[in-house]
């Protein structure tokens, strides 16, 4: 075999070995979302009570999506209500799942404020191996079922 043939075969083998690595590469993206959420079902505000919410999501990097949250009250005091649960964001490229912790502080004039954090655990489609975290804060106006929150963080997929 000529040196040229060996060089071409070696180059092709090297490229073949690199291709699978490129397919598995991940990129970290800045997560900046607005979530508009309403309660679908709630048992109450006492420890152990559960609730389900759903809403619209918009922002980077998912574009427009919908979400659902299932959570449970872990504590209720005069300082607010703590909840823990999961959020699933459904996009056109798959879904993202995360565990979350929320603290809601009702306002004496009505409505509430809320803060929290989440750890992204994966999903489906493009997001099947997603990892990351985000924090959020939001408000619910008096006499409104709509809770609007803003998230910031990172997601790797």
Structure summary:
This protein is mostly beta strands and 157 residues long. The chain contains 1 helix and 8 strands.
Would you kindly provide a written description of the structure presented here, covering whatever features stand out?
The structure is a single chain. With 157 residues, the protein is mainly β. The chain has one helix and eight strands; from the N terminus they run αββββββββ. The protein has one helix at residues 3-23, and strands at residues 28-42, 50-60, 63-77, 80-91, 94-106, 112-123, 131-140, 146-156. Strands 1-2-3-4-5-6-7-8 form an eight-stranded antiparallel beta barrel. The longest helix is centred in the N-terminal third of the chain and has 21 residues, at 3-23. The two termini are 44 Å apart.
Major β-sheet profile: 8 strands, antiparallel, barrel
Q: What percentage of residues falls in helices of 4 or more residues?
A: 10-25%
β-strand number: 8
Radius of gyration: 22 Å
Strand order of the largest sheet: 1-2-3-4-5-6-7-8
Summed over residues and divided by their number, the pLDDT gives a mean of: 88
Q: How much of the sequence is in beta strands?
A: over 45%
Unreliable spans are 1-22
- How would you spell out the order of helices and strands? HEEEEEEEE
């Amino acid at each position: 075999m000529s040196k040229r043939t060996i060089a071409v075969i070696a180059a092709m083998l090297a490229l073949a070995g690199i291709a699978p690595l490129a397919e598995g590469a991940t990129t970290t993206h800045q997560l900046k979302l607005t979530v508009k959420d309403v309660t679908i079902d709630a048992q109450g505000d006492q420890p152990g009570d559960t609730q389900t919410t759903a809403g619209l999501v918009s922002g980077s990097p998912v574009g427009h999506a919908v979400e659902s949250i299932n959570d449970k009250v872990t504590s209720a005091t005069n300082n607010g209500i703590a909840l823990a649960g999961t959020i699933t964001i459904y996009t056109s490229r798959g879904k993202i799942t995360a565990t979350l912790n929320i603290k809601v502080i009702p306002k004496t004039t009505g409505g509430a404020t809320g803060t929290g954090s989440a750890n992204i655990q994966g999903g489906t489609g493009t997001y099947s191996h997603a990892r990351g975290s985000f924090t959020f804060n939001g408000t619910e106006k008096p006499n409104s079922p709509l809770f609007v929150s803003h998230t910031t963080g990172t997601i790797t997929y």
